[in-house]
Design a protein that fits this description.
Blueprint lengths: L6 E5 L4 H12 L3 E6 L2 H11 L4 E5 L5 H15 L2 E6 L14 H22 L3 E10 L12 H20 L4 E8 L19 H5 L9 H12 L10 E4 L23
Parallel strand pairs: 1-2, 1-4, 2-3, 4-5, 5-6, 6-7
Helix pairs in contact: 1-7, 3-4, 4-5
């Protein structure tokens, strides 16, 4: 168990991809500290794990005071950090709806400022061989309409990755993972929900299926391991090949129906 007794911190760790990452580190024998705004799901995880190996903190990481208090509690409990996973982010839509100044900046604080500040707060406490993993998205490189808040945050965290990797060289390895379409139903909320992914959804992926949170957790655990010791400053795309497949009008049964001028 490569992560036995390692200290792993996961933001947004109570649901979805973050929850899967938290569970995987826990199963590997790590001490896991998770912060999330969903108290119900966090408390459920705390009761499920039932020991001092898991610490849940309910709080909004867009608030500096929360970041400071959380980091202090983590260090008081575990004394160091081996793996820091910046996963928390949401979308507040974009320019075609009512995503205003505060809405847009909230997502940027959640997706870029909080990872920067939490890394800075933990900087004196990173163990030898420590790793930071930023969960980005293929949305950093491609978009649908009205996704500006989320896309901007993911573009920012991708750029922050290579910047931190240089500033922290020799002390902490920093990488990012960009998930594509990930079906998180099995890891949502206290009650696990049912997926509604169709056969067509799966077949449009070159890999032949939709991604799942375990695909991302496996990538994160690899990047945090000694096997990835020569990898830093990189972004790993995990999307079943979707961003590599070019599709033109009438390819694969798809046709474009845009607005005529």
């Amino acid at each position: 168990m490569e992560y036995k007794d390692k200290v792993c911190v996961v933001t947004g760790g109570a649901n979805g991809i973050g929850r899967c990452i938290s569970e995987n580190f826990y199963k590997q024998g790590a001490f896991v500290a998770c912060i999330d705004t969903d108290r119900v799901s966090g408390d459920h995880l705390q009761s499920e794990f039932k020991n001092d190996q898991f610490f849940f903190y309910c709080g909004d990481i867009t608030e500096e005071a929360i970041l400071i208090d959380f980091s202090k509690q983590v260090i008081n409990r575990f004394h160091q950090v081996d793996c820091l996973i910046h996963n928390a982010c949401i979308s507040n839509g974009g320019i075609l709806t009512d995503c205003g100044y505060e809405d847009f900046n909230y997502v940027l604080k959640l997706g870029i400022t909080a990872p920067y500040m939490l890394t800075k707060l933990f900087l004196p406490h990173f163990a030898k061989g420590a790793c930071v993993i930023n969960i980005s998205s293929t949305r950093a490189f491609m978009s649908q309409p009205n996704t500006e808040s989320y896309t901007a945050a993911k573009g920012g965290i991708t750029a922050l990755t290579h910047s931190l990797s240089i500033s922290l060289s020799g002390k902490v390895r920093v990488n990012s993972v960009s998930p594509g379409w990930i079906d998180t139903c099995a890891y949502q909320k206290e009650e696990k929900s049912t997926s509604h992914v169709s056969t067509s959804d799966s077949l449009q992926h070159p890999a032949g299926r939709i991604g799942n949170p375990q695909d991302i957790a496996d990538t994160v655990l690899f990047l945090c391991s000694e096997k990835a010791g020569f990898i830093t400053g990189e972004n790993i795309t995990v999307d079943g090949g979707m961003t590599k497949q070019m599709i033109y009008h009438q390819d694969y049964g798809w046709s474009y129906h845009g607005k005529e001028e």
